[in-house]
Amino acid sequence: RKAVDKLSMTIKEIELLSLSQSVKDEAVAARDAAQREAKEAPKDPVMILPSQLTERQRILEEVFIPRNMPTMTIDEYMALNPHEFQAPPPPPPPPTGEDADHEEELNHDQEDEETYKKRAWDDWCDENPKGAGNRMGNV
């Protein structure tokens, strides 16, 4: 029984292999024929018509049209807007004497305020670790 089954399966396999080989041969033949036809087909010569020449000439002339020409010279612009071209005023001289002491005290006060603010923020961060916010009741 097993031998008969194997024999019938072998016969079917041989038929399938020969069929697949014939399909491959047909595909190769069709591809070769298409390549031969492509090689043998004469190519049409390129013809440049006068209408194409005029179109080309028109495009060429449009390329070199001067566009966005300046409406005034640099000198005219400087005359209209002199404040833009003046040097900035020199910085004020550094304070001396009592003014310097007063400014130094103000700077120290500002630094102290910033220090206290940073400390307060650091304390808050220590008390409220990241992710300890609203957990929707999942404590």
TrEMBL record:
Residues 87-96 have a biased composition (Pro residues). Transmembrane segments: none annotated. Residues 105-122 have a biased composition (Basic and acidic residues). Pfam families: TAP42. GO terms for biological process: regulation of dephosphorylation; regulation of signal transduction. One of its GO terms (molecular function) is protein phosphatase 2A binding. It comes from the Eukaryota. One of its GO terms (cellular component) is cytosol. Residues 77-139 are annotated as: Disordered. This is Uncharacterized protein. The lineage of its organism: Eukaryota, Discoba, Euglenozoa, Euglenida, Spirocuta.
